[in-house]
Amino acid sequence: MKPTQEVSKARISSQATDEYDEDVFKSQLTDLIPHLRAYARSLCRDATLADDVAQDAMLKAWNARAKFEPGTNMKAWTFTILRNQFYSIKRRSWRATSLDKDVAEQTIVANTSPEQAVHLNELRRGLQMLSNDQREALILVGASGLTYDDAAEVCGCATGTIKSRVSRARQSLEIIMEEGKFDKAADKVSALDAMNEILRDSQKLTDR
Amino acid sequence: MKKIDKIKSGSQKHNDDHFSEESLRDKISKDLRTLYDSVLEESVPDEFLDLLKKADKE
C-alpha cells in the first residue's frame, strides 16, 4: 500500500508545482522576448520578418513548456526553437528571398555617435560576408552571451565545432575590417555602374 | 544592466578617441555586443505580450 500512497502524494505535489512552474515559465519566457528578437534579427536582417519569427518561436516555446527541463538554460532552449523555426520557414517559404534580403542599413542603432554608427554598419557588412555557420556561432557566443556548450546545443553540433567557427569568424572579420574589403566590393559595384553608363552612352551614339 | 549604463553614460566622443588604442579584436567584440544590445534595448512590441496572454488563456 505504501507505493500507492507515495504516488498519490507525488501526484498532488506535482500538480501544485505545475501551476507554479507555469507562472515562472511565463515570466521567464517574457524576459527572454528581447533576446528572441535580437537573435532573430541576426538571422534575418529584415526587422519585421525577424519579429514574425520571434513571435512564432515564443508561441512554440509556450506550447512546448511541458518539455522544458527546469534548471537547464531556457535561453538556449528557446533559441533552438527559434533557429529551427527560422530554417524551416527559409526552406519552404516563398519568403526565403526576403529573409535574405539585405536591409541592414535601414536599422539605426539608437544612442550612437555618427562615427560609431559607421563602425557598426561596417561590422554589419562584415558579418554578412561570413558564412552562415560562422556568423551564427559568433553572434551566439560573442553577443548573446551563450556558452560554447549552449551554442553547440542550439546549432546541433559539437562544442569544438562552435569553438572553431567562432575563432574563424573572428579571424575573417578582422581581415575584412582591416582590409576594408567591403569598400573594395563597393568600388567594384560603382565601377560596374560606370561601365554600364559608358555602354549606354555609346549605344546612344550608335543609335544616332 | 551595468554594462549598458556604462555605455550610455560614457561620452561617445571620448570613446571614439580611444578607438585607435583598442585592438581590432576588442573593437569588433564590443561592436558586436552593441549591435545585439541595441535590439535588446528596444521596447518589446505589444503584439508579443498580447499573443502570449491569448495563448495562456487557451
What does this structure look like?
The complex is a heterodimer of chains A (about 210) and B (about 60). Chain A has about 210 residues and is mainly alpha-helical. Chain A has two domains: about 1-105, RNA polymerase sigma factor, region 2, helix turn helix motif (Rna Polymerase Sigma Factor, Chain: A), CATH 1.10.1740.10; about 110-180, Arc Repressor Mutant, subunit A. Chain A contains nine helices and no strands. Chain A has helices at about 1-45, 45-65, 75-90, 95-100, 115-130, 130-140, 150-155, 160-180, 180-205. Chain B is built from four helices and no strands. Chain B has helices at about 1-10, 10-15, 25-40, 45-55. Chain B starts with a helix and ends with a helix. Residues about 1-20 of chain B have low confidence and may be disordered. Classes of the chains: A mainly alpha (about 210), B mainly alpha (about 60). The interface of A and B includes residues 51, 58, 112, 120 and 142 of A.
